Amino acid sequence: MRTGECPIKFGTDGWRAIIADDFTFDNVAVCAQGTAEYVRKSALASRGVVVGYDTRFQADAFARVVAEVLTANDIPVLLCDSAAPTPVIGHAIVAREAAGSIVLTASHNPAAYCGFKVRTSYGGAAPPETLVEIEANAQAAWTKEVPRRGLEDARSSGLIEMIDPRPAYLAHLGTLVDLDGLRNAGLKVVIDPMHGAGAGYLSELLSGGTNEVMEIRGEVNPAFPGMHNPEPIQRNLEVTVDAVRGLGADVALCSDGDADRVGVIDHEGRFVTQLETYALLAYYRLEVCGARGALVKSVTTTTMINKLGDLYGVPVHETGVGFKFLGPKMMETDALIAGEESGGFAFREHLPERDGVLSGLYVFDLMARKRVSLPELIKEIHSKVGPHYYDRIDITMTEAERDRIAGLLPSLAPAEIAGLAVERCDRDDGLRFVLEDGQWALIRLSGTEPLMRIYTEVHEEEGVPLVLDAVREMTGA
Q1: Rounded Cα gap, residues 248 and 269, in angstroms
Q2: 239 CB-near residues (< 8 Å, 6+ apart)
Q3: How many C-beta neighbours within 10 Å does residue 413 have?
Q4: From CA 433, how far away is CA 431, in angstroms rounded?
Q5: CA dist., res. 315 & res. 309, Å (int)
Q6: Residues ≥6 apart with Cβ < 8 Å to 25
Q7: How far apart are CA 456 and CA 393, in angstroms?
Q8: Whole-angstrom distance, CA of residue 307 vs CA of residue 31
Q9: 63 touches 117 (CB < 8 A)
Q10: How does strand 15-18 pair with strand 113-119?
């Protein structure tokens, strides 16, 4: 019988913990039981739950434990037969009219982590109130015996169906873009799935015509060698830059561990920031495709979205960080696109869920249709909304240091930062300093790792490190 405090606590997007420390088969079973109790109340429970996993160490074994617990609760399971991206699993929910999904993935976290993501019947992240209920159920189950049903018994009873969600997902993407046109764009592209579950997707979608496609880091390697973590940001993409220069590529499209985020590198080997990528995708939908609809953004992403909203006459809505907020707001407003600073973007005709594969396709389609480079496209956007420059720093810390900073944040109220006047502060999610002329800086403690992130977006490139350093100094980190 388990004793002590239950370690299962849901953060920004599910529960994540270090493998063999808190993330154990026993604790995963407890979390699955908490989810089963939530699902059993759903009218769709008899339709089953999709269970998937990424390329993390033992993720497939953790997924089998989840299947054993769900079927012991008489909930049918649609179990993925191989690693798959989170958005592919999300599409399978909708295609199969299932009650939801559980994905064993830690997304962009370092290799030592695994995680437990819950998706609902609409294929998107569970809203905060659902996660609160599942967490409470799991904590109540902590002191009880969790039932498990052997997989062979579950199969013979018809409670487990093995599925391959890939074909239906790829067919769906073919309804959203002209794949034949994209395959014959005559562009050179590097694909980097970072040893994650996105391997093979973009390569298959863009190959077979006049493009030259090179995929790197496509083999499964749960150690994620050569990178701090499988997050498609500049510090992790040195080999990708080398591949771009070696191939003479027009673009590199990268995805994180479960392929729900995208990272972009231009033909010069420069990392296109996540904020620039959101502006590019919004510009693509509004200007190139001529679509209209609300734009949804998290507090940590670009004010270029607000200016594009004004320019094209569409509303902009802001939420806290995470698709547990962005997804519901997207559905509420029938938004055209939703995005966050992490490089996760969702689209109205698809799912209220981040999708790094579809985001990459749309960036590629923008380039193919405009026939200009990414730097030129960014200049085109800046000509409409003004220049915007961004960066962030991540600071790993102990729990004690994290607690110290959490206690400090309510008292921080500077009059200026790096010579820029602070017009106001808000604490909707982290601590954001709204600076003069729409510039900003933000301090946020991660909901999935013991670290602090500091972000800024300003109008002068040389001002970025000055603001970041000034904010870091005021925290004493």
Answers
A1: 10
A2: 192, 216, 217, 226
A3: 10
A4: 7
A5: 6
A6: 61, 62, 65
A7: 9
A8: 42
A9: no
A10: antiparallel
Six-digit token string for 71: 């079927």
Give residue-wise pLDDT tens across range 331-350.
999 999 999 998 999 999 99
240, amino acid identity: T
Count Cβ atoms within 10 A of the Cβ of residue 219 and give its class: 0-12 exposed, 13-18 middle, 19 or more buried: exposed
Question: Rounded CA gap, 199 and 114, in Å?
Answer: 19
DSSP state of 416: E
pLDDT one-digit tens code per residue, 24-71 = 999 999 999 999 999 999 899 999 999 999 999 999 999 999 999 999
pLDDT value at 155 more than 90: yes
Nearby residues of 334 by Cβ (< 8 Å), 6 or more positions away? 293, 294, 348
Whose tokens are 């990424």? That residue is 54
Burial call 180-193: b when 16+ CB within 10 Å, e when fewer: eebbebebbbbbbb
Which domains are delineated in the chain? 15-165 (3.40.120.10), 177-385 (3.40.120.10), 389-475 (3.30.310.50)
The CA-to-CA distance between both ends of the chain, in Å, stands at 41
Cα torsion 336, 337, 338, 342 to 10°: value is 180
Contact status, residue 62 vs residue 79, Cβ threshold 8 Å: no
For residue 1, the model assigns a pLDDT of 61
